[in-house]
Design brief:
By secondary structure, this protein is an alpha/beta fold. It is 44% helix and 13% strand. It is built from 14 helices and 11 strands. The strands form 2 sheets. Strands 3, 4, 5, 6, 7, 8, 9, 10 and 11 form a 9-stranded parallel β-sheet that branches. The longest helix has 26 residues. The chain is globular, with a radius of gyration of 20 Å. The two termini are 39 Å apart.
C-alpha cells in the first residue's frame, strides 16, 4: 500500500490522531511496537496561524516516528490553507484533514464532523489545501452526521475528486459519538466502489488482533487505524501485526514488562509536558496498562490520583512485586 510516495507495506496498521493521547511520548512507544503510520494530536488551524503555543508544540515530529502525518481542523478555507502551509514547514510526510471529530467544542462550531452538515464547504477546504501544499493530503471523517444522512459513499468520490491521497473512515456517525458498534458496511462499500482508486483506511472498534484480521478480510480495506484500543496498550500494534503475519497469538506481555513500559512512558510524558500535565495525562494510560488485574482497585486509585512522579514510580514498582507472577 502507498499514500503518495509513502510505501507502507501490506496490511499496515495506523495509530489514530487523538487529543491528549497521540502526543510524542505515546507515539514513540507505539512506533517501537510496530505502528506503521503515526499522526499528531489534531491541531486547530486558528490556533496555529495565531502562533498559539499549544498548537505550535504539536507540530514537533521526530525522524524515528516516520512516516508521520500532522492533522489539522477548522472551518475557514483561508485559515486551513495557511495552517497547512505552516504544517508543511514542519516536514511531515502528509497532512491530514480532520472532518470527523465529534466533540461539541469542535463539531458544534462547524469544524471536524460539523462539516458533515456542510459538504460544499468541506470540499472547498479540501481542494484548496491540496492545491496549496506539495505533501500528500488525506482526510479522516465519519459515515455522516446521523443515521438519516450517511453520505460517506458519495462523499468519498467527491473527496477523491478534490485530489486527496487517501481516506480514513470511522464507522460511526457524528451523532453516535463513540457509542454503539462501529458499522464497517459502508467502509467496505467504498472500498468495493470501482471508481475509488485511493487507499481506504478503516477505523472503529479495532481492539484485538482477531478483529483487525476480520476487518481486512471482510471489508478489503488497505489499512486499519487503531485509536482508543491502543490507549495504555501500545503493544497492541505488535500483537496485531504478528497475528496478521502468522495467524498465531503473540506471547502476552508480562506485568513486569508492563511496569517498565509504564515507567518509560511516564518519563517521556514528563520530558514532553512537565510534571503537572505529564502526570495528569498519564492517568488514563495507567488505568489501561493494568486493566483486569485481580484486587487492583485501591492501587488503581493511587495511580490516578498521585501527583508526585517519584511516588508514581514507587507504586509501579509495587505492582511489579505484588502482581509480577501474572
Amino acid at each position: 500500500m502507498k499514500i503518495g510516495n509513502i510505501e507502507l507495506g501490506e496490511r499496515p496498521v495506523f495509530f489514530a490522531p487523538m487529543e491528549d493521547i497521540s502526543d510524542p511520548s505515546f507515539r514513540r512507544l507505539c512506533k517501537e511496537y510496530g505502528a506503521d503510520m503515526m499522526y499528531t494530536e489534531f491541531i486547530s488551524s486558528e490556533g496555529l496561524i495565531r502562533d498559539a503555543e499549544k498548537s505550535l508544540r504539536k507540530l514537533d515530529v521526530a525522524d524515528y516516528e516516520r512516516p508521520v502525518g500532522i492533522q489539522i481542523y477548522g472551518k475557514e478555507i483561508d485559515s486551513m490553507v495557511e495552517a497547512a502551509k505552516r504544517c508543511e514547514e514542519a516536514k511531515p510526510d502528509l497532512i491530514d484533514l480532520n472532518f470527523g471529530c465529534p466533540v461539541k467544542k469542535v463539531a458544534g462550531k462547524g469544524a471536524g464532523a460539523g462539516l458533515l452538515q456542510n459538504i460544499p464547504l468541506m470540499l472547498e477546504i479540501t481542494a484548496a489545501v491540496v492545491k496549496a501544499v506539495k505533501v500528500p493530503v488525506t482526510v479522516k471523517t465519519r459515515l455522516g452526521w446521523d443515521e438519516e444522512s450517511k453520505v460517506i459513499v458519495e462523499l468519498s468520490e467527491q473527496l477523491q475528486d478534490c485530489g486527496i491521497a487517501a481516506l480514513t473512515v470511522h464507522g460511526r456517525t457524528r451523532k453516535q459519538m463513540y457509542k454503539g458498534e462501529a458499522d464497517w458496511t459502508l467502509i467496505g462499500e467504498i472500498k468495493n466502489n470501482q471508481r475509488m482508486i485511493i487507499p481506504i483506511i478503516g477505523n472503529g472498534d479495532v481492539t484485538t488482533p482477531e478483529i483487525a484480521k476480520e476487518k481486512f478480510d471482510n471489508y478489503g480495506v488497505d489499512a486499519i487505524m487503531i485509536g482508543r484500543g491502543a490507549i495504555g496498550k501500545p503493544w497492541l500494534f505488535r500483537d496485531v501485526k504478528y497475528f496478521l503475519e502468522t495467524g498465531k497469538e503473540h506471547a502476552p506481555i508480562t506485568i513486569p514488562e508492563k511496569v517498565e513500559l509504564a515507567k518509560r512512558h511516564l518519563n517521556y510524558s514528563l520530558e514532553w509536558k512537565g510534571d503537572v500535565t505529564g502526570v495528569f495525562e498519564m492517568r488514563q494510560h495507567f488505568s489501561n496498562y493494568f486493566k483486569g488485574l485481580y484486587d487492583f482497585k485501591s492501587t488503581r486509585i493511587k495511580l490516578v490520583t498521585e501527583t508526585n512522579p517519584d511516588e508514581l514510580v514507587k507504586i509501579l514498582d509495587e505492582i511489579a512485586i505484588k502482581w509480577g507472577e501474572f
